[in-house]
Amino acid sequence: MGKPTGFKEFNRELPGKQPVEQRLKHYNEFVEKFSDEKLNQQSARCMNCGVPFCHNGCPLGNVIPEFNDAVYRKNWKEAYDILTSTNNFPEFTGRICPAPCETACVLGINQPAITIEEIEKHIIEIAFEKSYVTPKKPNLRSGKKVAVIGSGPAGLAAAAQLNYAGHSVTVFERDDAPGGLLRYGIPDFKLEKWVIDRRIAVMEEEGIVFKYHSNVGINVNINDLLREYNAIVLAGGSTVPRNLNIPGRDLNGVHFAMDFLKQNNKRIAGKDLLANAIIESNILEKELTATGKT
Ligand SMILES: Cc1cc2nc3c(=O)[nH]c(=O)nc-3n(C[C@H](O)[C@H](O)[C@H](O)COP(=O)(O)OP(=O)(O)OC[C@H]3O[C@@H](n4cnc5c(N)ncnc54)[C@H](O)[C@@H]3O)c2cc1C
Ligand code: SF4
User: Fold this and answer.
1) Residue ranges of domains in the chain
2) Ligand 1, atom nearest to 261 Cα
3) pLDDT 10s digits, 71-105
4) Residues near 185 by beta carbon (within 8 Å), at least 6 away in sequence
5) Which of 60, 161, 186, 222 to mutate to test the pocket of ligand 1 (most atoms within 8 A of CB)?
6) Residue 207 in contact with residue 163, Cβ under 8 Å?
């Protein structure tokens, strides 16, 4: 526990946000950074509870009081090691997780909860700045090959863990880039896409192979995968929208979120929407011809 009286001395604070008039001019993230002093104060609020309910509140089981303590002592390497012992991608969760850990925080019973998510984000960003995040290649390869279908957070986490275990992993993604909904669902103002690219570069260095425009069941044959790989992970997510029967659903301009967000995120990334659509329709046409369905 960093500072036994911390929770009495400091109030919960969050980093500042860019003024609205600036935010209106771009699509990027707008939450500013904590200063070292603020980070120190916010981590000092953690009480290191006898039963840290935040552990269970976090779906990953992050060991939160321990990394808060390391942050208070400004031991960034230790904080990074603790955080990544349970979390493959703190730079994603630190930006977009709904933070059920904070709802479970004991201090939240009668005071505002610890700012766990922001602390998490700062630990990983500082770790990247200080070059603690380096590719972790397995010492031994098992000789087994695993295909991961889908490069959303589920596929990426499975790929990372299987690779650490020594298996040779190939990720098949039907889209033109990795990340699943991280890339084409969640807008840049919550998660800028260089954050995904930075992580993919580390994973590639670790030996994971990514194949894009590879739509399993369309232009990649599942039987070929079954022959070539020892195991297959299905991490295709779900892009099936719920067509809610609510007043106004039929009005002009009311669209499914992903129909709008996907093309908008591609546009913001500077992608050629027409070229993308042509590639996708060529893949489909090839498969239909190959299977005699045209
Ligand atoms: C608009 C929106 C906002 C969201 N905001 C948040 C948020 O703020 N915080 C939060 O925690 N969660 C949020 N979510 C939810 C979160 O994004 C999802 O829970 C998460 O992305 C699911 O991960 P996944 O890996 O299972 O699937 P996905 O992210 O959907 O990834 C699946 C991947 O598999 C690929 N794929 C599918 N079929 C095939 C195939 N046959 N061959 C090859 N590739 C295939 C897809 O192209 C996709 O890239 C949001 C979701 C949406 C839609
Ligand atoms: S914000 Fe981080 S620590 Fe909290 S629940 Fe999400 S992943 Fe877990």
Assistant:
1) 6-129, 145-290
2) 1
3) 999 999 999 999 999 999 999 999 999 999 999 99
4) 257, 258, 261, 262, 265
5) 186
6) yes
End-to-end CA distance of the chain: 67
CA 229 to CA 51: how far, in whole Å? 44
User: What is the largest distance, in Å, between two alpha-carbon atoms of the chain?
Assistant: 73
Could you say which DSSP state residue 112 is in? P
Burial classification of residue 127, based on how many CB atoms lie within 10 Å of its CB (0-12 exposed, 13-18 middle, 19 or more buried): buried
What CATH number has the domain spanning 6-129?
Answer: 1.10.1060.10
- Contact, 202 vs 135, CB < 8 A? yes
Compute the distance from residue 51 Cα to the ligand 1 centre, in Å: 33
117 within ligand 1 shell (Cβ under 6 A): no
* Residues 49-73: tens digit of each pLDDT: 999 999 999 999 999 999 999 999 9
pLDDT at residue 47, as a whole number: 92
149: Cβ below 6 Å to ligand 1? yes
pLDDT (0 to 100) of residue 153: 98
Q: What is the pLDDT, as a whole number, of residue 292?
A: 66
Q: Which residues of the chain have pLDDT under 70?
A: 276, 279-281, 283-284, 286-288, 290-294
DSSP 146: E
Listed residue (96, 245, 114, 75) closest to 179, CA to CA: 96
Q: Judge contact between 88 and 124, C-beta under 8 A.
A: no
- Tell me, yes or no, if the two domains 6-129 and 145-290 fold the same way: no
Residue range 145-290 forms a domain whose CATH class is alpha beta
